[in-house]
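Obj.: predict assembly geometry.
Materials: sequence records (below).
Method: joint structure prediction, all chains together.
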Amino acid sequence: MIRLSILLFGIIATFVIAMFGLTIVPKFFIDEGVREPTYLTSFEITEGHRIFVREGCIYCHSKQVRPEGFGADFERGWGRASLPTDYRNLLPHNLGTMRTGPDLANIGARQPSRDWHYLNLYQPRAINEKSIMPPFPWLFEVYSERARPGRDGLSLPEQYRIPGMKVLPADEARYLATYLISLVQESTGTE
Amino acid sequence: MKKENIKPVDPGNNPSPHYSVSELDRKARFVVLFLIMSGVFWLLLGTLLALLASVKMHLPEFLGNAGWLTFGRVRPLHLNTVVYGWSSLTGAGVALWILSRLLKIPIQLRGYILVAGVIWNISLFVGSIQILAGFSRGIEWLEFPVSTMVAMVLCVIIISASVMQMIIMRNVKQLYVSVWYILAAFLWFPLLGLVSSLPVFDTPTVQAGMNWWYAHNALGLWFTPICLAAAYYFIPKVLGRPIYSYGLSLLGFWGLALFYNWNGFHHLIGSPLPTWFVTISISASVMMVIPVVVVAVNHHMTVVGSFKAVKYSPTLRFVVFAAMSYTFVSLQGSMQSLRSVNEVIHFTHFVAAHAHIGMYAFVSMMLFGACYYIIPRITLREWHSKSLIKWHFWLTAIGIIIYVGALQFIGLFQGWSMNNPDVPFTDTVTMTIPYLVARSASGILMGAGHLIFAWLLIKMVFRTSEQPAGAQVLDNIRKEFTV
Amino acid sequence: MSTGALILVISSLLIIGGGLALFLWAFFNGQFDHIQKGSMLPFDEEEPPGRRTDQILREIEEGEHQTRGSRK
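Observations (raw structure tokens):
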């Protein structure tokens, strides 16, 4: 019985100590600096973040820039090293672990154009024919050429066009684009 | 220790063997079969999802208009079904059977475990639909929404209660090292699951820390202990030869408990987390070399010289393959945590392949091996076809080797090119495509292996007897609740 | 921050010390004296050591008759 108690104690103790070390202690060190709301987070951005999570963009795009000199993130123009304060306190976190596609932490600075994002989301191969990013056509609506006068459809290359129809972004595409454009490293990062 | 030095069993170890082996196995039959069979169901589903995700990676237009089958939903669901469905359910079944054998006591609370198993399966169904419908929690390894996760953890807690009760009521004096591992796993995983569901990790960077603490420990503190317990049981059992050094096995256990817990942050090297936190995990990852080498030496010294026995035993084939993969994947993991290596391989396919050596070449192969040993004993039937067993082994073994070889090879080049700003990013995408195709091919091989395994299992379990299968099942359920 | 670090250092020293003390106690208490005995725990009278099990792929290799199933 003594041996069993020591065993149980050891099993729990090793776990709890590490749990404190890796989850609770970082919380105390990081949270205080992140708490103050430094960004204005609008409804569109929150919704866009939700759609970003829903479509699993994070399985191909990281959202964390490594420091200069560690990898070539800086040289590729992806931004300066990310800081805990760069994130808008939107959960879940989207740091990501995969770069099948480029890092998106600073995509708003690189691609501020809505139309570019619409095109890339509707048909990534309209922008780069070698891209393996999946298309997200369900974020868009297809109308007859004559409907909604005054609104131009996406300027798709010939092979992706639907004859007699035009493609317009639905609300979800607009939210997602707003969110992507909002991903700009605002501070200089010298704290 | 010399090889021949096999003493008769110490009677002091074994004061009151109330139960014969066949009695234990008979009582374990229904519960263990239920857990293993439902695990295999999720294995098949998970394999299908894996193939879908893999194909979508090089053919992005494949089913491209179906929102619920987009890559970003299929890929996390693949992970969740194989992790919480196949590996966890089957792992629990294997662990319970090993415990029952080692503690010489029937599996306790069998009726409750059945109920828990049913609820667990329902949670998996609900969670799968949630992910496909777009309600993922969006945290890697924790994609099931919190409610689903908590339901699943409560099911594990019921099994943990059974584990505790078996240990307390045991009919042997000493606890074998496998029991240590299994006990630890069934305490660690519920804690992990519950802590990760707490709403306190509410800023992104802290949540990222929790994320990788959880994800790494789900492998290190749940699957690894169960599978090492299986290795420590099946290698001596099949060879009829005790483990080389029992002292080393205990050292390995405490090494794992001490160091694995701290490994999580090596997934966040270069992230906005304070560097010194990450450094803690890097040192712990390097320290993992100790328990890993200890386990490797122990297993190697036990098996060495018995190549024929490995060849002739389906169990040992899989178990030895898995044990070797464990050594390989862990040493590779320690290397990957070094900053200079991580700089290259982080964010590439190399890591995806690494994860598959862990979860497939180690965990899944170990569970296959365990099933080949357990199921004939609890069903009192022989495997239907021996050549199919061999096919299963070679298809899965070659499949995973192709997978890992292809993706780790190209992952290195992907990382090097990504770190070279003169290479356009698109090139890091196009260079991987032939290897992504190879991965899909390897997935077909492994999938074929899984189908063979499922077929063997179904042939074995539902072999027609006088009673129709449905009546048998009902009869068995009734028995579980009356004991 | 520095008080936090101090607490961390002290607590880790305590933990290491505790672990060491526990180990020394176990060692001098004789907990490790017959350690190899534990390796016999998977075996018993019914399934004694020295007998291989689960050698079912044997007969197709060597054309023998089915002598032992995986259950024996």
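Conclusions so far: The domain at 33-182 of chain A is CATH 1.10.760.10 (Cytochrome Bc1 Complex; Chain D, domain 2).
To do: check interface contacts against the pulldown list.
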